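[job 0417] fold request received: Rhodanese-related sulfurtransferase
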Amino acid sequence: MYQSITMPEFEQLWKKTPVKLVDVREADEYAHAHVEGAISMPLSSLEDTADQLDKDENYYVMCLSGARSMAACQYLSSKGYKVTNVMGGISAWRGEVV
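[job 0417] inference complete; emitting structure tokens
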């Protein structure tokens, strides 16, 4: 089972401590704008790339609005990864993007 966090909660956490953020939007969406330091891991190829993640780490998962990150969290948590869905996605992010 995975957790969820609201965007305001995530933004406060992001400012205070380094966290691992996985962006599951497609490569072109990521290239257009993403949170600096986010790991690009598109949902469409997640089954092939999930093994690049460390099961001992905690990951926060973001997409555009929260639907794909929820699906990614369901998949990753079923495989034993510690993940938290960032609700609202990058469309709710008020910080800088690169």
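[job 0417] notes: The chain has five helices and five strands. The chain has a mean pLDDT of 97.
[job 0417] exit 0
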